Amino acid sequence: MEYMKFESHHILSILLKRLTLLVGLFFLVPNHAQRTQKDQVNLDKIPPRIIRACCAFGYDLKVWGVPFVSIDQVISIDDLGEHRYMGHKREGIGTIYSHRGGFIDIAHLRDQIDWTRYLFTTIVAHKGKGAVVLRLRNEAGRKMLHLNVPAQFDTDDCIQLAGKIAYDFSLWHEISTWYGASTVPLVPEKFSSFSVEDLYSNLLGIHVGMKTLRSKRPFNTAATQLIASTLDSLAVVQTAQETYDAYDAVHDKWYTNQKRVPRTNITLKRDLDVLKSTRPWIVPEVKAGNSDPIVLAVPLETAKGALLTDFYRFTIDLNRKIPIEEIFPSYESDRIDQDDFGVLLQSIANELQLMEYDKLAENK
Known about the structure:
Elements lengths: L7 H10 L43 E3 L2 E6 L23 E4 L3 E4 H21 L5 E4 L5 E7 L7 H24 L19 H17 L4 H15 L6 H11 L9 E2 L15 E2 L17 E2 L14 E7 L5 H4 L7 E3 L3 H23 L1
Parallel strand pairs: 1-7
Antiparallel strand pairs: 1-2, 3-4, 5-6, 6-10, 8-9, 10-11
């Protein structure tokens, strides 16, 4: 039987009728509560961690408990449409392959464009006002952003700072979901943590967002045009079939559709080398004229070379999902910050290595 394709709200409707929330992880109805008629930034409402429906890596993915339905969000370059701050149902979202940037999750990219704008506006609003603490939405614990932005920060410094904080937020999402945090209660997201396209798509969106903030055009117009030109610079494929072909080339290597969502072993390869830069995963079997990968750097310094981390602290008061006593035995409290992410990434890498050893032992 040929699997039917459903848009996110159709999938969600089916699952609710069947009394399950398993696909709610991917197919979240886009949140428009924050968007005003003029698409202006509303600092009184912190955006949700996931603004748009995000995509699983792969296609024809089966869902546990929901027969005859598969997850398939491959799109073509013609499906992108216009960008709208905080989302719109007519935006194109899904995954698309590029020869120089690998697989790109367009929902992740759009979300980070908008988060970068929101954080930039927040930073400008608090510049020169001394220490400020902003309460964020919970995610594996209570999150807070501590800002102390000097009055002499220029626009570019504020943009760089917004990009760094946005990346920290996106990295924490991957870390927290590995340890059991989830958007939908009781629906694990560990299987999608650190999939090979996630952090690259996030950082790509942050770079596009920073360019958009430097533009003199209206935000949505600039974002729409820069998304198109950025994907073009990455040698994006022109048809959905080419993305399907790229997925086929890495099936049973980077992912498998022989397991059902949300099984952890759907994702066979994960990318943890993401602390200061992200490198795209290029499919060897899919070549183009120029396939040199474009590596993206995380913003780290102001124009004068000052560390951006000198002007903010992103703290999380951890809940019990993360074994803090095991990972940070010398810590006397449950609070960590962005400087601890490297230790957490190493701990996850150790877990993945043990999982790989166990898998090899089972196959002997």
